[in-house]
Amino acid sequence: MLDSNSSTNHTNSPLIEAHNLSHSFENLLYKDINLNINAKESIAILGVSGSGKSTLINNLSTLLPPLEGKVNLNGVSDIYSLSDDKLIGMRKNEIGIIFQSHYLFRGFSAYENLQVASILTNQNIDMDLLQDFGISHILKQQIGEISGGQQQRLSIARVLTKKPKIIFADEPTGNLDIDTTNKVMKIIFDYIDKNSACMVIATHNIELAQMCNKIFYLKDCTLKEYSKKISS
Ligand SMILES: Nc1ncnc2c1ncn2[C@@H]1O[C@H](COP(=O)(O)OP(=O)(O)OP(=O)(O)O)[C@@H](O)[C@H]1O
Ligand SMILES: [Mg+2]
Questions:
Q1: Where does the pLDDT of residue 229 fall: very low under 50, low under 70, confident under 90, or very high at 90 and above?
Q2: Distance 90 CA to ligand 2 centre (A)
Q3: Chain mean pLDDT for the chain
């Protein structure tokens, strides 16, 4: 349930709205990107390495103001016009970010990593979820003692513990075999459905992209929607 996170105005508007987003570092990455993502919807962003997928996720997820354009999240208009405190509050309570690198606390056990998310957001740790992820037996171990794939599943479990309304995932299953990827993604898609949440995934993995409702390709500084049948 999302009760403790329902600080914002819930309307029928999309959970994510991007208007005319542009970003560049040395070179222009993209220009005038428009995107709407509704509750219960998942989208994948494909694109060659360096095309700007992670940057776009950062623009959409409170981490990096775009050079131009606006982002509305969960009924809040133009998130980058919020005060720092409000923006951080939104990141903490409404958004879950699964990073390309996991950012687990290495001096802590697996369970302590989950406790941090649980305490910060006042949500319970869901032991059934950990069972489903196949990591309930490693909870006492230190992060350095668990495998890369277990760390990846733990970091996804940590994000879901927060009960976010909007999930951003940057190559979330890079360390997982295909069977584990399928299991983990099924849990995330079930979560999205049950909680009327939504998700944006950046990935190179076409099979993973095809599990989402829509696929976009970031190319030539623009985001194009592709039909779901892409030949690999
Ligand atoms: N903070 C930064 N400062 C300067 N340049 C950056 C910064 N972040 C990203 N870039 C550059 O922007 C471009 C896009 O990077 P980004 O990480 O968004 O690509 P990506 O599509 O996610 O790539 P990958 O598939 O390898 O993860 C790259 O050329 C990168 O070097
Ligand atoms: Mg990236």
A1: low
A2: 23
A3: 91
Q: Report residue 189's pLDDT band, with 50, 70 and 90 as the boundaries.
A: very high
Q: Which of 97, 57, 64, 56 is nearest to 80 (CA)?
A: 64
To test the pocket of ligand 1, the residue of 53, 56, 221 to mutate (highest count of ligand atoms within 8 Å of its CB) is: 53
The neighbourhood of ligand 2, an ion, using CB within 5 A, equals 53-54
Topology of 40-64+85-226 in CATH?
Answer: Rossmann fold (3.40.50)
Chain segment 130-150, per-residue pLDDT in tens: 999 999 999 999 999 999 899
Q: Where are the beta strands (DSSP E) in 25-165?
A: 28-37, 42-46, 68-73, 95-98
Q: Is 54 in the pocket of ligand 1 (CB under 6 A)?
A: yes
Domain ranges of the chain: 40-64+85-226
The alpha carbon of 56 and the centre of ligand 1 are apart by a number of angstroms equal to: 10
Give the distance (Å) from ligand 2 centre to CA of residue 35: 19
| pTM score, whole prediction | 0.90
Give the integer Cα–Cα distance in Å for 125 and 139: 12
